[in-house]
Structure formats: structure tokens, C-alpha cells
Specification:
The complex is a heterodimer of chains A (about 300) and B (about 550). With about 300 residues, chain A is mostly helical. Chain A has helices spanning about 1-30, 45-55, 60-70, 85-120, 125-140, 145-155, 170-200, 200-210, 215-225, 230-240, 245-250, 260-265, 270-300. Chain B has about 550 residues and is an alpha+beta fold. Helices cover about 30% and strands about 20% of the residues of chain B. Chain B is built from 16 helices and 20 strands. Chain B has a six-stranded mixed beta sheet with strand order 14-18-13-17-15-16. In chain B, strands 1-12-11-10 form a four-stranded mixed beta sheet, with no helix packed on it. The chains are: A mainly alpha (about 300), B alpha+beta (about 550). The interface between A and B is large, with 49 and 55 residues.
Chain lengths: ~300, ~550
């Protein structure tokens, strides 16, 4: 197992390398400039700005310099926010996105797994239909609709929570619910499906035959097997939650890293785009590895060598 | 639309105002939205309106714009003398201090003005310093910054020499590019090896205006406290300003409704789709703004290299219908570039819509019908508003002239690049005034202007504009500018469409704000009216204070 993890970690290096090369090439091939503005700037000013960020050097040299930089953990300066480095921007925004993501994830797991269990245990009853209908609605309502509706009802009509912003616990509830709901809905359907798949398995029959109480059969045996599809879903889902949601963070004006995916690209903030891509890629790769490892804990039949 | 209906159903209160009408904070503060994280809050390098809003309130320049009339009034300079040839200004400064207690002197202004045009600063607004003697050469790297026509005669006397006796110089001086920069701070940071661009961070920043920054939470908010060392601190009413950065317009509107903003700020537009709805409320305000909306024409690319065809297109735009049905913000339709009445300017008053003349011009251009005109592409940047205007004009050209126009929608950065390279046939553009003078609009048609995206150049136009700016008699000058505009529009390198308006929501308890064409509302005049009662008719705002009367 340890060897497997080590091998997978080593495999990350070339993968990340390919990502760095590809994203560097893509971002620099895009038309436009980080210094584009409605009011034209003189060639002297443009040259001074390009020299300041090293964009006057040949692209290959810029790439080598960038590689040298990231090896030392320096993601470079931001051209859009000249008073800040990309490291600083990510260090500021990442904990915010992480907090929001954690709340959304807890909500998604709590609601999703509960609804999934109810659906599986009470298959084809009113309970099952209600839970799955709710899940269908949850999947179908995009966050750019759910978010504003929650704001209108909870903040503007009931005056219970602030409509947007970031500061204390009150600010995290509405965006957490908005972000978590879509995942909750998927988790509910996956949990139900996974549990129904194992419900007629021999080991469940054996457990029941041993006289185990139904509660224990569900918790100890059915759920463990039933959660496998949820776990494989959770890998990319967690990576996606942790790298922030463009829509939810925009709607609730949350200073996380989500909006940079779009904004940094629009602004041609080269180093910030690269920084965000690298963080996202690293998270996704690591989360996939974690999922593979968790598989072995949940299903004894899976073994890596 | 469903959301608009929900919004509507949610909060139409009896008092007729949008959302809360009692401040959720103390009486000595105000919460404003600045829409976005500023790029720069350094006067020399700033070119974005979010940064400008902050600079205007934490720095004090030689002069300030009157909050209602925009007339240049004393700020750090108590008075000034202008030489007979209109080229030399001598400013007499009041003794004043930076926020760290260091005396502010004329040398700080010399340092700042040089820094603005120094190519090493890489200022996107270096062109604002081109009116100063030597400014153009220094910007182009052909002369040393020390040769700029600015010198400190003594600590409290500043002499500024101009290339031409431009009458708008005092108005231009109220712009943020001319605010002073603390030379002593810049030198001390450099000595400590701290990057110069960090000087505006709250841990370092030293300023001389009504407010100073005490907190900057990246992409959340900034907090400003009253600067007790500002020379006119006694007349600054609010102790604290919280300036948020909320980009999403609908979010900002919801926060305004909930009282999280007293004023969503002039940098944050009201959501297009809610405009009809919010207009009905008593806290909605609208006034004209010096912002022009027009279409550039690439005059070198056929078939639009024919000026008659370009004029036909302009005449076929039904601007009044466009304002009534599409833009719906009470904009002023215009077929000329410089707004009528600006600094006494008498505009050309060209017809806003003349389809018969348009068809005549089309025939004169050599086209029996619009169907003979090769297809034309109209380019705009992604935005629902630009799209609707473009679609309407496309329809008008089809209907009135039979010309087929294709629409091209581009992402902002790509759009800017194409505009800069004049790689289009027709493209939409906007131009906001930095100072009150028709030249601020007409300069974009100068042959040497980097902002002229039409490929159109006219020696006669350039001569008239140059002569106008060298003219001491204001009436003669304005007439020359008018002639220049007539020369340009006879060839139609652009199609003017409208002069914009500013539409805002402002809580009824916010006072000390007066409508003006540059939408500048200095925080130092703002105050919170705790006695506001929605049951009583609103009392009239007291007349704007006149800074000229300040000691």
C-alpha cells in the first residue's frame, strides 16, 4: 500500500509538468493583453509595463524563469492587483473557499446520505419517492437561481441573515446551503443506488441470518457498501468544492478563489491564472489518490499492490 | 424575469423607498459600494474609476471640484495667478501636513507631476501630464523628468508652465492624476527595500486628504477614518467610511435593500433588468453624466471608406426611438460628439434621425439600394446592453437603408485588442470625461491620439484643435473647436449615439450629495440625517458649501 501511494505521488510530477506547460502555452496564446485598457497607453508605457513583469523576454525564457519561480514556491506577481502577489491572493482566498466548502460538504453529506438511506431502506414507498423527488429538484435548480431565491426570502423578507459578504458565521449559511444542495442531491441518489445494489448481497443476508438488528445491518454493512459510488463521486466533488464556486462566490460576494477562474482569465492576469490552475490541478490529483485509498478501507475486495 | 418578479413581490414597502430607511450603523459613518477591487490607488498610476474614487477622498490636490458645479475651488492652493499668456500658473499653497505630520510642500507636487509623466512609472494616464511643458517629450523618453515645466519657487509656492494656454487646465487639475504623492515616504520605503507599489497599503500609506485608510480586506472592504491632519478636517462630517467591493450588481442591490449599503456607489451600475422596477422608488435618482456612447467606423476598410455611406448610416439611426425603447435611461440622444453646453460649447445640433437624407446619401455614395452594399460587421463587447443597442441599430439600417449588418460579439480583452489595432468595420465605444471641456471629447479624433480607432486623420482638424488650444479668447476657441467637430463629422469617422445618465439608489437619510455631470461625490460633504422621517416630506438639501469661502 505504501509503495502504491509513493508510486502515485511520483506520477503526479510528470502530470503536473504537462499541466504547467499546457496551461502556460494556452494562457499566453490567448489574444489580448494584461495591460489592455479602454484609454490607449503609449508604446513607452506598454514597454515599461512589459519589462516590469518580464513579458518583454522571449516566451521560452519566460517559461524557464516561471518554472524556476514555482520550484521555489513563488507563483509570481499579479498584473491586475499590483499591490499583491499571487501567493498572497491565494493565501487570502483559499481559507475562505475552504470554510465555505467545508460547510457545503457537511450539509451535502448530512442531507444527501440521510435521504439516500431513507430512499433505499423504504424503497418504493412515499418516503423514497419524496426523497428522490427532492433530490431531483436539488439537482435541477442551478445555484444562480437557488442563491438569489434564498437571499430574497431569508435575507430580504425574513431579515434573518445578511444577503452577502464575509465576516462571521451568519455569512456562511446561505452560500453553504446554496453550494451544498446540488451535491446533496447527487449524494442522495448515489447513496440510494449504492445501497440498493448491495441490499440483496450474500453478506447482507448472512448478517440478517446471524440475527443482527436491522439498524446494525444498515449502518455496518449496507451503508459501507452503498457508499462506494459516493466515495468515487466525492473525490472530484471535494476538489471542486475546495477550489471554489464561481457562481456562489459571486452571488454572495465571497472573497474566495472561485471567481479567479474566470476573472483572472478575462483580465489576462497570467500568473494568477497559472497559480489557480496549478492549485486546482494539484487538489484534483491528490483527492483522486485519497479516494482510491479510501476504497480499500470501505471494500476489502479492493487491494492495490 | 422570475427573479425580478420575486424581488418585486418581496419588498415594495408602504413608505415608497427601496428596502430599509434607517441606517443599520452609527450616525457618524456611511457604507458605500465601490464595485470592485481597485487596480491602483496611487495617483500617478491609477486609471480605474474604483481607484479614482479612493484617491479623491484620501488625497487633496491643489484644487478641488465644487461638489455641485464642478468649478475648480481652492484645496491645498489658497489662490493662484495666471500669466497674461495663459501659460504660467503660480499656486500659493496653504501650510498643511501629511497624515504622518510631515509638512506638505510645493516640492511634493513637483515630485508627483514628474512621476506622472516619467516613463519609468508606466502610468496609463501619463497623457494627463502632456499639457505640462515638456510632458510629451518626457513621456516619450526623449527628455529627463527634471525638465518638466513644474518648479517649487519656495515651500509654499508652485509654478506650473503649460505648453498651450488651455483653459481647462484648472478643471483637469481636479482630476486624481494630479494629487500629491509623499516623496518622503517613497524614499523611506526605497531605503528599506520595500517595493514602491506597496506604498498605498494601509500599513504604509501616508495621505493628505479628508480620510485615511485604516483597513484593507482584499476583495471585501476598506475602512477609512477621518484624517485629523487634513487642513479642513473641521468641516469633514463623517468619522468613518466603509467601502465594499461587491461586483455583482444584483448582489449590491440586495445589500442596499437590506441596509448593508447606504449608497451602492457610482461605480456600481443598477442591474439592467431591474431598472424599470427601481425607478419607481423615491430613493432613485438620475442625472446626466459626461459619458458618450458611439460607434467607431474603420474609414480605411471598404465599403466604409466612403464618407457618404458613413453619413448615411449615421442619419439612419433613430436615436430617440433607441433611447425610448432600448436604453430607457433618459439618455440624451446626440448625433455629435461633444455635448452641447459643455463649458459654454455650442454643439453642432445635427439631426438625430433623417431617413430621407440617409437614403439620398446612400444613392450619392453610388448604391442604388442597400442590398448593393457589401455586408458590414458591427463589433461589440459582451454585454446585454451593447447587444440590444447593436440589434436595434442593425434593424434600423436594414429597415431604412436595406443594408445587411452582421453582429460580432467579443470578450472584453479581445475586443480591446481589435479596437486598438482598428481590426473591425464598426465597433462600439464609450468615452467618459475626466474634465469639463469639449476638448476632452474632441481629442479622440486627433490624428496623433492613440484613442482614435477610426484610421481617420485630417490635417485641418488637427490644425483647428491646436489653434483652439492656443487661443486665449474663450469664444474664439470654442468656435474653432466647433469648426473642428464640423470638419470631422462631415466625414463621419464615428457615429455618436447618446450622452449617458447616471442612475443610482441613495438612502433618503444620506445627505450632502449633489448631482453633477462627472458624478463626483466627495465623502467629506456626506452626512447621515438621523431625523429623517418617511412620513414627512423630504426637506430640501441645504445649498452646497462653497469651498472658495474656506480659510
Amino acid at each position: 500500500m505504501r509503495g502504491y501511494i509513493l508510486r502515485r505521488l511520483l506520477e503526479l510530477v510528470p502530470t503536473m509538468m504537462v499541466i504547467v506547460v499546457a496551461s502556460f502555452a494556452l494562457v499566453r496564446l490567448a489574444p489580448g493583453s494584461p495591460f489592455a485598457s479602454e484609454k490607449q497607453i503609449s508604446p513607452q508605457v506598454r514597454a515599461a509595463l512589459e519589462a516590469k513583469y518580464g513579458f518583454d523576454k522571449p516566451l521560452a525564457e519566460q517559461f524557464v524563469r516561471y518554472l524556476g519561480r514555482i520550484m521555489q514556491g513563488d507563483l509570481g506577481p499579479s498584473t491586475k492587483y499590483p499591490q499583491r502577489s499571487v501567493n498572497e491572493i491565494i493565501a487570502d482566498g483559499f481559507p475562505v473557499t475552504l470554510t465555505l466548502g467545508a460547510v457545503a460538504l457537511v450539509w451535502a453529506l448530512l442531507i444527501g446520505i440521510t435521504a439516500g438511506i431513507i430512499g433505499a431502506v423504504r424503497q418504493n414507498t412515499v418516503w423514497d419517492h419524496a426523497a428522490m423527488a427532492a433530490a431531483l429538484i436539488g439537482i435541477s435548480i442551478p445555484s444562480f437561481v437557488l442563491g438569489p431565491v434564498l437571499v430574497l426570502v431569508v435575507s430580504l423578507r425574513w431579515h434573518l441573515l445578511p444577503p452577502a459578504g464575509w465576516g462571521d458565521w451568519r455569512h456562511v449559511i446561505l452560500p453553504g446551503l446554496t453550494l451544498g444542495t446540488i451535491y446533496a442531491a447527487s449524494i442522495a441518489r448515489l447513496t440510494r443506488g449504492g445501497m440498493l445494489e448491495v441490499v440483496r448481497s450474500d453478506f447482507i443476508r448472512t448478517a440478517r441470518a446471524k440475527g443482527l438488528p436491522e439498524r446494525l445491518v444498515i449502518w455496518r454493512h449496507m451503508l459501507k457498501g452503498g457508499l462506494l459510488p459516493v466515495v468515487s463521486y466525492l473525490g472530484p466533488a471535494i476538489a471542486s468544492i475546495l477550489t471554489g464556486s464561481i457562481v456562489v462566490e459571486k452571488i454572495f460576494n465571497i472573497p474566495g478563489i472561485g471567481p479567479y477562474f474566470v476573472d483572472a482569465a478575462f483580465n489576462r492576469d497570467y500568473f494568477l491564472v497559472m497559480g489557480i490552475v496549478l492549485i486546482d490541478a494539484a487538489l484534483l490529483l491528490v483527492m483522486n489518490l485519497v479516494v482510491d485509498v479510501v476504497y480499500t478501507l470501505l471494500d476489502p475486495r479492493i487491494e492495490y499492490s | 424575469m422570475a427573479l425580478a418578479a420575486l424581488f418585486s413581490g418581496c419588498s415594495r414597502p408602504d413608505h415608497g423607498y427601496f428596502g430599509t430607511i434607517k441606517p443599520v450603523h452609527g450616525p457618524n459613518e456611511i457604507w458605500i459600494n465601490n464595485s470592485t477591487e481597485p487596480e491602483w490607488i496611487d495617483p500617478s498610476t491609477c486609471s480605474d474609476s474604483a481607484g479614482g474614487e479612493i484617491i479623491w477622498n484620501i488625497f487633496a490636490g491643489l484644487v478641488q471640484a465644487h461638489p455641485a458645479t464642478l468649478e475648480p475651488c481652492p484645496d491645498i492652493a489658497t489662490h493662484w495667478d495666471i500669466s497674461e499668456d495663459g501659460r504660467t500658473y503660480t499656486f500659493h499653497l496653504r501650510p498643511s501636513e501629511w497624515s504622518d505630520g510631515t509638512p506638505l510642500t510645493a516640492h511634493d507636487f513637483v515630485y508627483s507631476f514628474r512621476r506622472l509623466v516619467d516613463p519609468k512609472t508606466a502610468s496609463k494616464y501619463a497623457s494627463n501630464g502632456h499639457v505640462l511643458q515638456g510632458g510629451v517629450a518626457i513621456s516619450a523618453g526623449k527628455a529627463a523628468p527634471e525638465t518638466l515645466g513644474v518648479r517649487a519657487i519656495d515651500d509654499l509656492t508652485l509654478e506650473v508652465k503649460l505648453t498651450d494656454p488651455v483653459p481647462y487646465f484648472m478643471s483637469l487639475l481636479t482630476f486624481y492624476s494630479f494629487m500629491p504623492i509623499p516623496q518622503h515616504l517613497m524614499e523611506s520605503l526605497a531605503a528599506k527595500g520595500i517595493a514602491p507599489e506597496l506604498w498605498v497599503r494601509p500599513e504604509y500609506v501616508v495621505c493628505n486628504g479628508p480620510y485615511r485608510m485604516t483597513e484593507w480586506r482584499f476583495r471585501q472592504h476598506m475602512i477609512f477614518a477621518k484624517n485629523p491632519r487634513y487642513w479642513d478636517a473641521a468641516n469633514v462630517r463623517l468619522d468613518r467610511v466603509r467601502l465594499a467591493m461587491v461586483e455583482n450588481e444584483t448582489t449590491a442591490l440586495a445589500m442596499y435593500a437590506a441596509g448593508e449599503f447606504d449608497w451602492p456607489g457610482h461605480n456600481s451600475a443598477l442591474p439592467f433588468e431591474f431598472m424599470d422596477y427601481v425607478e419607481e422608488f423615491k430613493d432613485f435618482r438620475r442625472h446626466s453624466e459626461l459619458r458618450s456612447y458611439f460607434y467607431w467606423i474603420n474609414t480605411k476598410r471598404p465599403p466604409l471608406d466612403n464618407p457618404l455611406l458613413r453619413r448615411a448610416l449615421s442619419r439612419a439611426v433613430n436615436r430617440t426611438a433607441l433611447m425610448t425603447h432600448i436604453t430607457r435611461g433618459e439618455q440624451t440622444p446626440t448625433a455629435s460628439l461633444a455635448p452641447n453646453g459643455l463649458a459654454g460649447y455650442r454643439g453642432l445640433d445635427l439631426p438625430l434621425f433623417d431617413p430621407d437624407e440617409a437614403r439620398r446619401l446612400l444613392a450619392e455614395a453610388g448604391y442604388a439600394s442597400g442590398a448593393d452594399v457589401p455586408p458590414i460587421t458591427l463589433t461589440y463587447n459582451t454585454s446585454e446592453g451593447h447587444k440590444q443597442v447593436a440589434e436595434a441599430i442593425q434593424q434600423m439600417w436594414k429597415q431604412e437603408l436595406g443594408i445587411t449588418v452582421e453582429l460580432e460579439n467579443l470578450e472584453w480583452n479581445v475586443f480591446l485588442q481589435k479596437a486598438a489595432q482598428t481590426d473591425f468595420q464598426i465597433c462600439r465605444m464609450g468615452w467618459s470625461a475626466d474634465y469639463e471641456d469639449p476638448f476632452n471629447f474632441l481629442e479622440i479624433l486627433s490624428g496623433a491620439s492613440g484613442n482614435n480607432h477610426s484610421n481617420w486623420k485630417s490635417p485641418e482638424y488637427d490644425r483647428l484643435v491646436l489653434e483652439a488650444n492656443r487661443e486665449l479668447d474663450p469664444a474664439v476657441r470654442l468656435e474653432k473647436l466647433r469648426q473642428a467637430e464640423a470638419v470631422a463629422l462631415a466625414e463621419q469617422p464615428l457615429i455618436p449615439i447618446y450622452i449617458g445618465t447616471s442612475s443610482q439608489l441613495i438612502k433618503p437619510y444620506v445627505r450632502g450629495m449633489w448631482a453633477n455631470q462627472l458624478v463626483r461625490h466627495p465623502w467629506k460633504y456626506l452626512w447621515i440625517d438621523e431625523a429623517f422621517d418617511p412620513a414627512k416630506p423630504p426637506t430640501a438639501d441645504p445649498p452646497p458649501p462653497n469651498p472658495r469661502a474656506s480659510p
